Amino acid sequence: MSDSKSVTCTAPVNIAVVKYWGKRDEKLILPLNASLGLTMDMNDLCATTTVQASPSFTEDCLWLNDCKEPISKRFKACLEKAKSVARKHLTGDEAKAAILDWHVHVCSRNNFPTAAGLASSAAGYACLGYSFAQLYGVQDEVSVIARLGSGSACRSTAGGFVLWTMGEREDGDDSVAVEVSPASAWPDLEVLILVVNDRRKDTSSTAGMQTSVQTSQLLKHRAAVLVPDLLRGMEEAIHNKDFATFADLTMKDSNQFHAVCLDTYPPIFYLNDTSRRIIQMVTKVNAACGEAKVAYTFDAGPNAVLFVRSKDVEQIAALCDYLFVSGKQSDNLDQALVDQLSLTAEANSVRNIIRTKAGPGPRRLPDEKGLLDSNGLPLPV
Ligand code: DP6
Known about the structure:
Layout: E1 5-12, E2 14-18, E3 23-25, E4 30-31, E5 35-39, E6 46-54, E7 61-64, E8 67-69, H1 73-90, H2 94-97, E9 103-110, H3 120-135, H4 142-147, E10 161-164, E11 177-181, E12 189-196, H5 205-215, H6 217-239, H7 243-263, H8 273-289, E13 294-297, E14 304-309, H9 310-325, H10 335-341, E15 350-357, E16 363-365
Parallel strand pairs: 7-9
Antiparallel strand pairs: 1-6, 1-16, 2-5, 3-4, 5-10, 6-9, 7-8, 10-11, 12-14, 12-15, 13-14
Helix pairs in contact: 1-3, 6-7
The structure holds ligand DP6.
Ligand DP6 is lined by residues 16, 19-21, 29, 35, 121-122, 150-152, 205-206, 299-300.
């Protein structure tokens, strides 16, 4: 298919330490408050997407983890935004602009299970937005294109600590991702993701936050009054690599987000018994050590994301493995600490632990990494 054009890109997961929860515009996906998150290393967690455009395609098609999916409104919104940004650059160049009339075939895969509820749609939409931008030669507004797919995808379009600004404009073009600190700036900050054994979540973030906006007074207060202060403190802690403050604010923000969920009517429960046991472990470890060794945050599901410094990571990973995964005492386990915690091990309550760290934003991959064949159909895995 000589006329077709194809690009393949990969995009990361970004986990919020100041959460986004609630939209002021459903269609443009504009948030009630700014949020801040850390982009994770794509070697551990990423989405990969191939986008192919061809004059011979008769419709837009999407394959997600090898299942053909219907084209959603959000997919269309990303595509249309990418095209409208491209049109501004391509006016006058009719030959190049022809691609904007072609249909696209898209194939996207995650290197982690979607069912694990690990911001997979955020990485997926960030990858989609970035791939469309690459396909049409668009440099700017990538985070706006991704945001139209999923709010948190906005933050996955950059590396390191990323701020998603609230913006003020009605068209949403100032609600964008801004890198606050590159991935390399805090090298001894590490991440342990505890994938909790559970069925898939019942309430999607999209539906959950809609009910919170309609019913939670606490959300209004959080968005207008509490988050601006929290963000200032968080940015300062990140710049100073002040782990104690970072840990304190991260855990308080997570607690506040889940308090908003509880203040929603009917209430939303994302944490389960295992999540609460993880919170208890973190609190007890920090108290026993007399300093912040580890911090937790939880999104719209029971999985825990723990932040630890390199000097403590082996010990904390061994403790989590003992208490929640294998129930076995490895060499790195600090037995004196275990005795002090007086917690009983509950093996298999966590399926696995993903160890990762900060990473850069999306990038284009060489063509041979493509997921579609020359006819625009998914290649076998
Ligand atoms: C709890 O981005 O999934 O993970 O914009 O409706 O697609 P939509 O919602 P989504 O919400 C993410 C919520 C969160 C917090 C966060 O990532 O900031």
